[in-house]
What we know:
Layout: H1 6-21, H2 30-37, H3 43-56, H4 66-78, H5 91-102, H6 112-126, H7 133-142, H8 147-164, H9 167-170, H10 183-195
Helix pairs in contact: 1-3, 4-5, 4-6, 6-8
Pfam families: Cyclin_N (PF00134)
Domain Cyclin N-terminal: 1-61
Organism: Scopus umbretta
Amino acid sequence: VQPKHLGCVGLSCFYLAVKASEEERNVPLATDLIRISQYRFTVSDMMRMEKIVLEKLSWKVKATTAFQFLQLYHSLIHENLSCERRKYLNFERLETQLKACHCRIMFSKAKPSVLALSVMALEIEEQKLMELTEALEFLQLHSKINNRDLTFWKELVLKCLTEYSSSKCSKPNVQKLKWIVSGRTARQLKHSYYRITHLPTIPETSS
Length: 207
């Protein structure tokens, strides 16, 4: 993808994901998305890009994701834990770990099932839930994941999560997080602000 097309590709992918997963009444207008994003391409540009992306995906926009595998694995594994031990396998924590992995481009090359099982296996080891070893092997067998692939991705996930929980990651350089806008860009943003039609007010309902 050429750098000049990245914005259009990103917004088109986002729009496809929204249309595939949200109810029709919650899907925003393409014109609103383009306006909010402050890109300069047109709706027709975005529609053409959508078609290109769909063709690359063979029109399969509802592929099973690592998150869905994680949900499935967690629900199956949970059945093998006693009530007092279930708190040690927290789904929100697993979801956070998976999100951390998704921030690294290398994990886009992992099969969703392998990535999800890697996260699950590491958490089981971390929490010392040894009674789940057999259930984990069962999931690996039925997901058709070989030991070599699982070991390879587990090592990468462990490295990622170790860095993610380190002080270097949890205390980022605030200076680098500041968005510095040039005077020229600031003037352009100010002028464009007065030209756009504002989004409708979200109605409030009394509880």
